[in-house]
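User: Okay, second chain of the day. Same drill as before: sequence in, structure tokens out.
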Amino acid sequence: MRSIVIIAVVWWSIVGCIESPPMHHYTLITPTPKVIPHPSHTHQSLKVLYPRSLKSQAGVAMHYHYSGEESGVYLHSAWSNDIGKLLEGSLIEALSRSGVFGAVVSYHSTLETTYRLESTLYALEHRIRGEASYAILSVECRLIDAREGGLVKSRRFSYQVPTTQTNAKGYAEATNHALARFVEELLAWLIV
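Assistant: Same drill. Structure tokens below.
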């Protein structure tokens, strides 16, 4: 009996020592855009396609990149969902709130729309260079005439926002500032 107690105490001591730190999840916070109904678009609809990504930007991993060749992902921090889904959801919500289009739907919708918004995610990472630390966001958007299939216009939006901390939390906060700038510039670009 005594040996069972000793084994149990040793077992719980070992299990207690290998407990890992908690996982932290971060999300994109949809900025509240200014309501700017545009007379020429209020009777038109927009389908926001799921963003394509290049390199290894998709998924829930939060990427960092130091000077030189060192890069990786934060081990105990992640996005709350696939970054493409978070970006798509933020765009749909912000565009819907803005009033620029009569309807804004996701790529899953069977609604025939006036336009499609396609996007390619080129960069979403935490870049650290010496003492400087930035959230990098680079997205190319293409507005497509859904009925004719032709390109209406295209633009690449790129942001480098300083972080307040050189960790995943600081990166997430700066990414949300970059997202707010992106949404504001995207809306202005869409109504021109």
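The mean pLDDT is 88.

User: Thanks, on to the next one.
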